[in-house]
Design goal:
By secondary structure, this protein is of the alpha+beta class. It is 46% helix and 31% strand. The chain starts with a helix and ends with a strand.
Length: 127
């Protein structure tokens, strides 16, 4: 065997080297796909939270614009925002000061009513 023949055999990659390279590339691709999926899921969650906050704020603004002192108790109503079907639950609680009430607005996803997305609180005063 001459020196030039030995160098010709060593130019290519072995099967083991190719398999190791494929495993490394596959692992990197898998991690990338998981990261993209996680970003998409987080984006959907942030969008839901933003839309739910808008619904709760709209509910509280309507209460302020009505300029009536809210009665204690719980009430629920649909409060869709965009393509999301949301439920706004208003809870009015008496405070030690009889001229003041605490209004809590919880917003739930209509598809998963046990999951509260956002809660906003307002103090209402009797003028």
């Amino acid at each position: 065997m001459t020196l030039s023949t030995r160098h010709q055999r060593q130019r290519g990659f072995t099967l083991l080297e190719v398999l190791v390279a494929l495993v490394i590339v596959g692992t990197a691709l898998g991690a990338s796909l998981r990261a993209v999926g996680s970003l998409t899921q987080n984006s959907d969650g942030l969008r839901s939270a933003m839309m739910a906050t808008w619904s709760a704020e709209n509910h509280l603004v309507r209460l302020r614009l009505a300029k009536t002192f809210p009665q204690t108790g719980k009430r629920s109503e649909d409060c869709p925002q965009g393509d999301l079907k949301l439920i706004c639950e208003e809870e009015v609680v008496a405070t030690p000061n009889p001229r003041m009430r605490q209004v809590r607005v919880n917003v739930y996803d209509a598809q998963y009513p046990a999951r509260r997305i956002v809660r906003l609180v307002l103090l209402a005063f009797n003028d």
